[in-house]
Amino acid sequence: MSEQNVAFEISVIEASLSMLNDNEKLHLNKKQSLKARIAKIKQAPKTKKINFVAEYQDLRSKLSPFFSKDETPEILFRPHQIGIITPIKNYRKFPLLQINPLLCNLKYADFEKTALALYADDITSFCIVNPKQIKNIPEIYQLIRNAKSIQKNKFYYIYDMDEFKQIKAKILKNFKKIGSNFQASCQSFYLQNKKVKETEISLSPYQRYCLVNNPKYIFDANKPDIRHDIEMTDMQINQTLQLFRSKPNNFKENLISQLSNEQKRK
Questions:
Q1: Burial letters for 198-226: b for 16+ Cβ neighbours within 10 Å, e otherwise?
Q2: Alpha carbon of 78 to those of 18, 52, 75, 225, 229: distances in Å?
Q3: Which of 35, 50, 111, 132 would be a feasible disulfide site paired with 106, CB 3.0-4.6 Å?
Q4: Residues forming a β-bridge with 151
């Protein structure tokens, strides 16, 4: 074998070895991250068990038109581990707020939180597919560019749910820059679709979690990882809404006035 061929073969083997080492480091980091998460969950104070099946049934009875009558829900013991995004071609602007009008029967505070959770998922998916659109916020752009699990093929993107949540958390932290029109869109949509005669519905954090993640599943809220997920999601949503509430907002008074006038007209 010539010297040139030997050198080439060695370079190929070294490249393969380097890839194996990188994968080994990736798996090691993943294991350490999961172990740290387990330890954190175990250290959390024990909380009273909830009847999650009853809460889920209550949710279905409150929003019965939202659910398929023929569908039998399944109990899911842990959150989904893998997600898929089917990208929209030539998608150059942030997606608009899209939410089922039936959810306007919720009390506004619950509607706003649900709308934000759903919209944040859409924005996160958009940013994963179109990272250049978020270059002006380096902490999100670099997080997406450095994500190890995001894979792209001809039809869709696939990602690890833990990495998706990390990106989503950064997006929520910067949501005032990204979704500056969220509050106006949310209020306008609610007023347009609100049915005055309908009883307003309140949601628990668990019920909102089911609605947002996948309403056909009953998530076992007594499992530590799901309990942790619910609490973290609720905290992030509340913190994000505080960013919008830093300025005075008379929406509640305007809503009461507008709905009152509508009732009088009817």
A1: eeeeebbebbbbbbbbebebbbbbebbeb
A2: 34, 13, 9, 7, 10
A3: 111
A4: 158
Over residues 24-47, the pLDDT tens digits come to: 666 676 677 767 767 766 666 666
Other residues' Cβ atoms within 10 Å of the Cβ of residue 60 = 17
Sheet strand arrangement including 82-85: 82-85, 157-160, 151-152
Which pLDDT tens digit goes with each residue over 3-22?
A: 666 666 676 677 667 666 66
Tokens of 119: 């919209």
Q: How far is CA 134 from CA 93, 121, 123, 206, 239, in A?
A: 11, 15, 10, 31, 21
**Is 157 in contact with 117 (CB distance < 8 Å)?**
no
Beta strands in 36-79 (DSSP E): 74-76
Length of the chain: 266
Instruction: Give me 195's structure tokens.
Output: 């049915």
What does the alpha-carbon distance between residue 194 and residue 182 come to, in Å, rounded to a whole number?
18
pLDDT tens-digit map of 168-211: 999 999 998 888 889 999 999 998 888 777 778 899 999 999 99
